[in-house]
Write a structure and sequence with these properties.
474 residues, alpha+beta, FAD/NAD(P)-binding domain, Polyamine Oxidase, Chain A, domain 2, 3 domains, eight-stranded mixed sheet, 15 helices, 22 strands, 30% helix, globular, disordered N terminus, binds flavin-adenine dinucleotide, FAD/NAD-bd_sf, Amine oxidase domain-containing protein, Amino_oxidase, oxidoreductase activity
Length: 474
Amino acid sequence: MTLFLSPFPPTQYARHQHRVLPKPQASSFSSSFQPIQSHPKSTGVVVIGAGLAGLAAATHLNSRNIPFLLLEASDAVGGRVRTDVVDGFLLDRGFQIFITAYPEAQKLLHYPSLNLRNFYSGARVYYNSQFHTVSNPLRHFWDSVQSLANPIGSVFDKLLIAPTTLRVLSKSDDEILTSEELPTVDLLRRFGFSDSIIRRFFRPFFGGVFFDRELETTSRLFHFIFKCLALGDNALPANGIGAIPEQLAAKLPPNSILLNSKVVSVDLEEPGSGSGSPSVRLENGEVIRSDLGIIVAVEEPQAAKLLPGRSELVKQKPARSTVCLYFSMDRSQVPIRDPVLFLNGSGMGIVNNMFFATNVAPSYGPAEKALVSVSLIGMFEGMSDDDLRAEVVRELSGWFGDSMVGSWRHLRTYRIGFAQPNQRPPTDLMKNPRIGSGVYACGDHLTSATFDGALLSGRRAAEALLRDKALVRG
Ligand SMILES: Cc1cc2nc3c(=O)[nH]c(=O)nc-3n(C[C@H](O)[C@H](O)[C@H](O)COP(=O)(O)OP(=O)(O)OC[C@H]3O[C@@H](n4cnc5c(N)ncnc54)[C@H](O)[C@@H]3O)c2cc1C
């Protein structure tokens, strides 16, 4: 049983200095929570970063009635999980899919309010100038029987999916995340998958999930995602992927989130020095002291800056990057109605995957218009946005025909340099959140580079802090 032992009466945190903050920019999707208008100079716990990890940490603290302040550098919550509204279209900042079987998400999120819209469980692979369906046999059995003979791998490859699924389903998540690891591509070969299914299906599909077409990413992450895909649906919230962090933020107390507040330094409590509690300094010079501790919930490169000398937080591996281009077209011209993901299995070109987002969630575009989302892996620094757009249009004209693709109107291009931390072996997906006296870390770089990993890491950091301060017994 968990017991709350807080020594702090709520009124201790009631004396604040007031400051009015700018409103979030109108391009962000409308938010149902109210950002803070004033803030205290000290609080129970300071959480830095309002991505999924910071929001999960704050949610956990809130559920234990621990006062906290969530400081976010940007103009809205969500971190890497945000949606912009452009000309009536919902543009997620990069192609993102929510898997309903994510275990920590199931505990934290209220799915019905997200109004989740499902993808077809499988994909359509462009190979040899044709489209071929690959289906999840647990969801679309007859489709998968019909696809046995297609050229996206051998019949043996397709029959191997069932034992691979059973193998991951028999393991707990903790077992998966701590199991012996090797690069995903080596694991697939060890299982017996042929080079053709690896090239035509696994590279574009899991390469798109990990932003890593080489499939160097740890087999632990492959197993975890594979298990979640087997157990759940791939979905998008009707109001955009940003609805996920917004739902978490809306449940936090008023005046607990401070936007546009970049932390520039974290001052650690020196053990035994009697120097008091750790504190943070904001870009504008303000200092906020924490009575209980600080949770650093920023992305890996920022964590390295805020916590210099903590080498365990920084991986010397290049980050995973992506470019996502959005186009609009007439809804009546969309060549299919299925909510399916298209993969480039041809081994040529720069497009990795694309889909008609309004087929999955019609709310992603105005009534008569369709939204097209195209994803590339890597940053393509040597190419201008115009060149990238022209190349994508040229390539997809080969898939769908000049007349259709020629009518697309470009909406926006997102280049995301730090999409995910690099998780090729060796990895530690169960990193200790304790950083120093009174300072804790969370974020996808401490666990798996997924929504779920970020949420889980947030809870773990909050639990570690509360245990260390003897505020809970578990
Ligand atoms: C394009 C893209 C596609 C993805 N697709 C998927 C997917 O399909 N499925 C999936 O499970 N995962 C996906 N991911 C990964 C997933 O989004 C991340 O793993 C997760 O959101 C990380 O959350 P986080 O809280 O750890 O970090 P972040 O979201 O990066 O949050 C960190 C926050 O800290 C703030 N911050 C940084 N520095 C400071 C500072 N000094 N002071 C105050 N605040 C600061 C940042 O502004 C940010 O809001 C994708 C990621 C991207 C970018």
